[in-house]
Input
Amino acid sequence: MLTIRNLSVNYGAIRALTGVSLQVQRREIIALIGANGAGKTTVLNTISGIVPATGGTIIFEDRDITRIPPHKIAAAGIAHVPEGRKVFPRMTVIENLEMGAYIRRDKEGIKASFQEVFQRFPRLSERKNQPAATLSGGEQQMLAMGRALMAKPQLVLMDEPSMGLAPLLVETIFEIIKEINQSGTTILLVEQNAHMALSIAHRAYVLEIGEIVLNGNAAELADNPEVRKAYLGE
Output
């Protein structure tokens, strides 16, 4: 579904990514783990077209999307749940969700998507007319995820969905991510909480200073002594 080959990204004179290659197959959860500043968010932002690639290619569903603008990437079937949630604070829950569906024209399908999102996130239904700024951190994360799902994407990029959340809510968010995947949506997950990420992922990549240093089955990586020491606190 998604193939990245030799991706490089520079921020001015600073090299953020060097020769990153990875693959995401349909219906997988792929985890991308690494320390702060490793380049994880840059990978997602480059896939979304927010950050331009310096070199390499990004192929999505047999189409080269390396240098097409973000709105066309969204229309191609990729949705992004950004780091820090980035909900529209003055807009209501419903208005935020409508923004997720801006590329769609199927009114009946959009109505059905609203129902699906509210069924998956009952708290959003209870707060549908409230401004997003009045929601808790966990509710804002649910809103950001729901907004992405309103686009009916084939692939969802999730950037640090557990950031700033209480442990019990983190478990809830990860259960929802698993459910979204089981319903047929492919997920590329960037997550500081490596233990949780590896517990739900099928495969994983480890990024260090802009380069992939390890990859493989998520359960096997979770048992890897280097990974356990560096990222699992053991």
Notes: The chain has a mean pLDDT of 95. Residues 83-152 form one domain. The beta strands are 2-11, 14-24, 29-33, 55-60, 63-64, 78-81, 155-159, 186-190, 203-208, 211-217.
